[in-house]
Amino acid sequence: MTNGNYAFINFQNTLQEPYGKLSDFANPSPADLPAVQSLIFLTPRQNELEAQRNKPLNDRLKALSRDLYNATYDEDSQPLDAVVVRATYDSVDFFMRLLNTSMDTDGKFTCSGRNLALKATNRTFSLRTGVSFIDENGVRQLDTAVYRFSLTTNSMQVSVRT
Could you name the domain of life of the organism this protein comes from (predicted)? Predict the structure, then answer.
């Protein structure tokens, strides 16, 4: 399989050790170059606007991770880029906003569990980490970055952001 007529597709939930980092693919040996050029690397990433807006929160999450668990993030990686961190953080915000929509003007809950479940789908939520749409099947789309190898920089570079 050295003719380049193949692709390796790698999806990772974060660009952190021990999962692997993009820099692991920089400056490949000539023998490895065809394989590295065939790599399509996908990972969830905040879009640039969200990353700027979430900088204080990311910094706080990094500090808590370091202070409480002695775990650190790489310089170019943010906690909210990881699927599990963002999903956990957003779930509290999502549930709070969902409950708030079921209250009447007196602050009383007027909604049954079934109605609350129906209110959870096919709508957009403005969460603290950004805008999030939940479709009619309960699926939430994540911002994703697609990386491809660049011969110019001899490293992985973003080719598409979704």
Answer: Eukaryota
Q: What is the DSSP letter of 3?
A: S
Nearest to 46 by CA among 91, 92, 15, 67: 15
Residue 16 clears pLDDT 70, i.e. is over it: no
pTM of full prediction above 0.70: no
Residues 157 and 151: their CA atoms lie apart, in Å, by 10
Number of H helices, E strands in the chain: 5, 6
Distance between CA atoms of residues 24 and 27, nearest Å: 9
Number of domains in the chain: 3
Q: Which domain holds residue 13?
A: 1-45+143-162
CA distances to 80, 109, 120 from 57, in Å = 9, 30, 25
E strands within 7-100? 8-11, 39-44
